[in-house]
Each structure stands twice: as structure tokens, then as C-alpha cells.
Amino acid sequence: MSSDTSASESEAKEELEAIRSTIEGLPNALARAAQLNEGLAEDTTLDIRALHLVRLAALAASGAPPIAFRVNLEAMDDHVSVEDVDATLSAIAPIIGTARYLSAVRSILED
After folding, report:
1. CB-based burial label for 83 (10 Å; 0-12, 13-18, 19+)
2. Backbone angles phi, psi at 65, to 5 degrees
3. How far apart are CA 107 and CA 46, in angstroms?
4. Residue 43 — φ and ψ, nearest 5°?
5. Could you say which architecture CATH assigns to the domain 3-109?
6. Count of beta carbons in the 10 Å neighbourhood of residue 55
7. Of 52, 53, 58, 90, most Cβ neighbours within 10 A?
């Protein structure tokens, strides 16, 4: 691994830690995010599985941070499979590009 790659990974980890610290400093941030997800199926004709997959695609396309994926994946838990996530990201990869696709995959895989 080159030193540039190590530096990039180190910077990415520092950025993630900064996001986590910020979120932890906002006691209602995750609760607020959960509230935003409540009732999301009420305003659409999409079934819950399709709705979650559309939201996943939007997160990937917008370059959402890992915490956004975490909050949404927790809400998707009973409705979307790992295969659904993989298929959705694979389907949109040609549109959003390799960088956003890999960023989304990385965000999902991070703890």
C-alpha cells in the first residue's frame, strides 16, 4: 500500500471520527433522524421495500456520510436484504459513477 493511500485512509478515518464526535455531541441527532424516517411510507404509493431501496439509491447518489447510511439501514433491517442493497447499488453505479458507488459501499461496510 502506498503512503498516499495510507494517508487517505487515515484522513477518512479522522473525518469519520469527527462526524461521530459531532453526532455524539448532539444528543437528539439520531432521535431526530429516526423521527424523519417515521411514517415515510404514508406519503407514497411505493411499498416499503421499494421505498427503502429508492432512499438507499438517493443516499449513494448524494454522497451521504456513513452515519446517514447507518440510520437508514437500521430502518430497512426487516424489509431489505443484503442482496437487495447490492443489486440496487450495482444498478445505479453506471449513473452515479465509480467514486460514489465505492463511497456508498465503504459507508455501508464501516462500523
Report:
1. exposed
2. -75, 165
3. 25
4. -100, 20
5. Up-down Bundle (1.20)
6. 20
7. 52
pTM of the model: 0.66
d(CA 58, CA 92): 10
75: nearest Cα among 48, 111, 42: 48
How many helices (H) does the chain have, and how many strands (E)?
A: 6, 0
- pLDDT at residue 34 tops 70: no
Cβ-Cβ contacts under 8 Å for 91 (sequence gap 6 or more): 57
**Domain extents for the chain?**
3-109
The percentage of the chain sitting over the pLDDT mark of 90, rounded to a whole number, equals 40
